[in-house]
């Protein structure tokens, strides 16, 4: 009898474990049109503003690195809860919240109360990548939404600084379960989007040896030594709106815009060989980027009965 009880408990535990796993087919029965509805909404948003593709990929990153991929980044402040949106790395920088809200509204019309905001953020990042020429990878879904936000964590170093050294980046990614190749591949998202002058201006004027002089002079036109901190410059000067491997070619020419980009190549960096590989082999970069995004999407997810499915992404039910 005791053995029978143990077997039953093991079977129940195994069953719960299976149900709690993320899967690309999670909504096949409960909301078969979920992913196509999200895709349509995301494509519409990016067709209006091409830069939004980069913003949505970055939003997924900023969600996952702060207490896991749980849509906590979407919550707005309340009298009893501070918002991650107001954390230094996100304030007046993170974008795309309204696009996720619109996608959520579209999905709610099809399947009320079924699809999480956390999953919508993850799917939106994939759809954004694909729309501008990046890889289409199979997003695992089944996440649930956090009932709290974590501004203190967002402010404490769980989001990489634009001044971060390679060792600091590597240590941070390792704490999240991501290796050096994941770091270099995910950094390639900076083949898209723009950065504010305040994030790279000091590199232009400190006579650094790790930046190409001509590239630096070009950037100075948009970023004067006094003022212009919120002016924008493309992270990839060559093809800023297309997902390709120019980011890595730029690094090899000392044309990485952020210090945290350029540390991936030069002065014998341990990541030099990966940067070189991706510069020569765009298909390998695309494959590794997709794999790293899937891996990142597994960080501290809420599944099963944990968390909730928010009715709206900006507030707890």
UniProtKB/TrEMBL annotation:
Signal peptide location: 1-20
Residues in Plant heme peroxidase family profile domain copies: 21-317
Primary location group: secreted
Subcellular locations according to the entry: Secreted; Vacuole
Binding site for Ca(2+) 1: 63, 66, 68, 70, 72, 84
Cofactor requirements of the protein: heme b; Ca(2+)
Sites annotated Transition state stabilizer: 58
Binding annotation for heme b: 190
Binding site for Ca(2+) 2: 191, 236, 239, 244
Catalyzed reactions per annotation: 2 a phenolic donor + H2O2 = 2 a phenolic radical donor + 2 H2O
Documented EC number(s): 1.11.1.7
GO molecular function, one term: heme binding
UniProt keyword list: Calcium, Disulfide bond, Glycoprotein, Heme, Hydrogen peroxide, Iron, Metal-binding, Oxidoreductase, Peroxidase, Secreted, Signal
Cofactor binding: number and manner: Binds 1 heme b (iron(II)-protoporphyrin IX) group per subunit.
Gene3D superfamilies, sorted: 1.10.520.10, Peroxidase, domain 2
Catalytic residue list: 62
Gene Ontology terms: cellular component: extracellular region; vacuole
GO biological process assignments: hydrogen peroxide catabolic process; response to oxidative stress
Record: residues binding substrate: 160
Keyword Oxidoreductase applies: yes
Keyword Heme: yes
Disulphide-bonded residues: 31-111, 64-69, 117-313, 197-223
Function of the molecule: Removal of H(2)O(2), oxidation of toxic reductants, biosynthesis and degradation of lignin, suberization, auxin catabolism, response to environmental stresses such as wounding, pathogen attack and oxidative stress. These functions might be dependent on each isozyme/isoform in each plant tissue.
Sequence similarity: Belongs to the peroxidase family. Ascorbate peroxidase subfamily. Belongs to the peroxidase family. Classical plant (class III) peroxidase subfamily.
Protein name as annotated: Peroxidase
Species in which this protein is naturally found: Brassica campestris (Field mustard)
């Amino acid at each position: 009898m005791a053995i029978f009880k143990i077997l039953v408990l093991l079977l129940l535990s195994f069953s719960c474990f299976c149900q709690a796993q993320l899967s690309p087919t999670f909504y096949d029965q409960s909301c078969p049109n979920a992913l196509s509805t999200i895709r349509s909404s995301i494509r519409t948003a990016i067709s209006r503003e091409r830069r939004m593709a980069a913003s949505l990929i970055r939003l997924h990153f900023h969600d996952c690195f702060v207490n896991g991929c749980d849509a906590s980044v979407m919550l707005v402040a309340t009298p009893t809860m501070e918002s991650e949106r107001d954390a230094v790395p996100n304030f007046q920088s993170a974008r795309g919240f309204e696009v996720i809200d619109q996608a959520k509204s579209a999905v709610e019309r099809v399947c009320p109360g079924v699809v999480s905001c956390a999953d919508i953020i993850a799917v939106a990042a994939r759809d954004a990548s694909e729309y501008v020429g990046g890889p289409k990878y199979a997003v695992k879904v089944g996440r649930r939404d956090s009932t709290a936000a974590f501004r203190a964590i967002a402010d404490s170093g769980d989001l990489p600084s634009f001044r971060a050294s390679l060792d600091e980046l590597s240590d941070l990614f390792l704490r999240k379960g991501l290796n050096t190749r994941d770091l270099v591949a995910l950094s390639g998202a900076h083949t898209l989007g723009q950065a504010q002058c305040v994030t790279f201006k000091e590199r232009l004027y400190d006579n650094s040896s790790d930046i190409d002089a001509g590239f630096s002079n070009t950037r100075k036109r948009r970023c004067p030594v006094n003022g212009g901190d919120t002016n924008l410059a493309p992270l990839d000067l060559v093809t800023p709106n297309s997902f390709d491997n120019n980011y890595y070619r730029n690094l090899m020419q000392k044309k990485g815009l952020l210090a945290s980009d350029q540390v991936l190549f030069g002065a014998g960096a341990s990541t030099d060989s990966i940067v070189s590989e991706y510069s020569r082999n765009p298909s390998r970069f695309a494959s590794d980027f997709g794999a790293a995004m899937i891996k990142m999407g597994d960080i501290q997810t809420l599944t099963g009965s944990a968390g909730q499915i928010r009715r709206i992404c900006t507030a707890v039910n």
